[in-house]
Hints:
- The structure holds two protein chains of two kinds.
- Chain A is mainly α.
- Chain A has helices at residues 2-5, 9-29, 35-61, 78-81, 89-102, 144-167, 174-192, 197-215, 222-253, 258-267, 273-290, 299-302, 308-317, 322-329, 331-337, 347-363, 369-389, 393-420, 433-436, 438-452, 458-472, 479-504, 519-534, 542-545, 556-561, 564-570, 579-600, 609-612, 614-624, 629-702, 710-731; strands at 68-69, 117-118, 121-131, 134-142.
- In chain A, β3 and β4 form a beta hairpin.
- Residues 72-113 of chain A have low confidence and may be disordered.
- The chains are: A mainly alpha, B mainly alpha.
- Chains A and B meet through α31 of A and α1 of B.
Amino acid sequence: xxxxxxxxxxxxxxxxxxxxxxxxxxxxxxxxxxxxxxxxxxxxxxxxxxxxxxxxxxxxxxxxxxxxxxxxxxxxxxxxxxxxxxxxxxxxxxxxxxxxxxxxxxxxxxxxxxxxxxxxxxxxxxxxxxxxxxxxxxxxxxxxxxxxxxxxxxxxxxxxxxxxxxxxxxxxxxxxxxxxxxxxxxxxxxxxxxxxxxxxxxxxxxxxxxxxxxxxxxxxxxxxxxxxxxxxxxxxxxxxxxxxxxxxxxxxxxxxxxxxxxxxxxxxxxxxxxxxxxxxxxxxxxxxxxxxxxxxxxxxxxxxxxxxxxxxxxxxxxxxxxxxxxxxxxxxxxxxxxxxxxxxxxxxxxxxxxxxxxxxxxxxxxxxxxxxxxxxxxxxxxxxxxxxxxxxxxxxxxxxxxxxxxxxxxxxxxxxxxxxxxxxxxxxxxxxxxxxxxxxxxxxxxxxxxxxxxxxxxxxxxxxxxxxxxxxxxxxxxxxxxxxxxxxxxxxxxxxxxxxxxxxxxxxxxxxxxxxxxxxxxxxxxxxxxxxxxxxxxxxxxxxxxxxxxxxxxxxxxxxxxxxxxxxxxxxxxxxxxxxxxxxxxxxxxxxxxxxxxxxxxxxxxxxxxxxxxxxxxxxxxxxxxxxxxxxxxxxxxxxxxxxxxxxxxxxxxxxxxxxxxxxxxxxxxxxxxxxxxxxxxxxxxxxxxxxxxxxxxxxxxxxxxxxxxxxxxxxxxxxxxxxxxxxxxxx
Amino acid sequence: xxxxxxxxxxxxxxxxxxxxxxxxxxxxxxxxxxxxxxxxxxxxxxxxxxxxxxxxxxxxxxxxxxxxxxxxxxxxxxxxxxxxxxxxxxxxxxxxxxx
Lengths: 732, 99
């Protein structure tokens, strides 16, 4: 278990690599060879992460005695309480706590009840600083969720490092690029193993800064710097929510420790409901900005201005899931705050579902291949948030896991296409690349199938779990979320088919001869495509594996990654796998592909509808303008706020501030004048002059005594001695 | 013991010395008057020492004589230099420090 206790080494390595590359890269290593440092560091990180993951599975399989948490077993007595409404407080509470566990939707496979609850490995190294009795600790928090993210970040970052050696070869800021890739990796790894919410905030802001720096990597062009600024400023909006939410959490529980907060909520669900609601709403704003949720998702498509490997690493696989990760990490806060267990719609589920829907809609109207993928990412992140919103914790993390691989593969594939087709991302200048780029084509199709959710690719399994989670929910199902989810499943399959048509089929519409990318780019693509096929195997439902006698391997992510030590106290249940739901999801995806296939390949359907029909054109224009959200923010919100604010500020400035300042100035001047006249000139100068004059006149009077003649002095001396002698005689 | 007589002798000698210091214009005479004053003090010291039966009065007197010898050496040297510079040893002539 050494690695779990010393997990701080994992982010330390890329942090050192960052310093080495940035400060010694150019001079001692050579500007074109700095990637060696980065790749070596990431290789080490990958190995250490793999060791950590292995040791965590060992800890779950053979838990040491101190790792097991003893809790009261809710399942035994639920028969008494369940079903008969006592109507008093005690009965309600108890029924609410125990009701989920055994009845209704069932506790399925490998749930928290049969396996022991494993505590996370928490190492606190030292107190960072303390003030007024509040101590800020530094430490690491390692559990299954952490090691899962460690593996995702390390794997994709390593592949992106390798891929980038070709993609950004010869770039004028090659050193800077690799330095920031290392820093980003360090920050993200630091974030996922945050032991307290202060570290969460620090990691959150660090990855934001790296994102800003890498989006604006080619800052010579104005749109790139604009995009970087937009990403940064939009994230600032959410960061306010993050800070306020964390402050509310601290104010409620008087601790920053994630473990303590989660334990306090899960051992006493129902307490502090209002504070948790406020905290969850504020943190939702942070999630909306970081994870591209409606209405703050607009920065994410613009962030595609950065280099494509960066988009794959930061804006598809890792950084944008920070919000999802934060929800999952502080899940008891959201679960209790939004009453996920008992409601059938809540803010988080709605925002997630709505984001998934509008993101998928926008992906149809984009001509830039990366923007299609960006909106697809928005949509899939919405899926994850929706899954968390309906209580399907495992499904969300499972989808995060699978999505990271196939979306990174799609982005790197798009980069490969652009690398081949003269650095354009415009799909109107592509087409027919199937023959020229067989490796890119095949990996792209595999990942698209995974994204669309086709059996047996990775996305099928995770998407199915999310749809099932929405259908079943906790106490109540989430019907609206199910409708959103099904619509998105259909649309996802359709827009990915459209991308494949425009990019790889038909005739080549660009200029020059496209060529396949070199091996250093296609090998990472194949690895990611392999994961896009296999990642689903990490959480297969039991019934799939029973016929082949491997049911022991079912629900591995649920078994290892789920922090059931917290979630069990909340009474979170897992739905039974449902064949019908899987078939419905698959049918939706297939029909999405089929409709698009018929539309593009067979030229069926209403082609030219947007030219003929007023309403269709209007709808398309709305999509093209991204629902006018950017206009809303820039022209309406910013203008209406800016104009009157500026005017009012000017008036305030002239009338209040200036007047205050002027009055203060005049008063100060008058006071100064009075002080000069009376105090300075009169009192101080007067006394100084008087002292001088007194000294002068007394000196004038006394100078006659100083005759310079010794005998005069002698006379005075003896005279004075005689007088003193007389006084002495008289007195004594 | 004729204590009073000795004290009177000392007082008279001292008064003569004071008169000399304050009234004589010759620098050498002023120095000699100072010697008179010192020796008046010496007489007092010796007398009181004998009166109390201790030798410290006489020891002090010896110290005073030694210091007075050094003092008059320095004083005569100053008078000599004054004479060389001003061809005069009249103390009335020297008032450079007049305010």
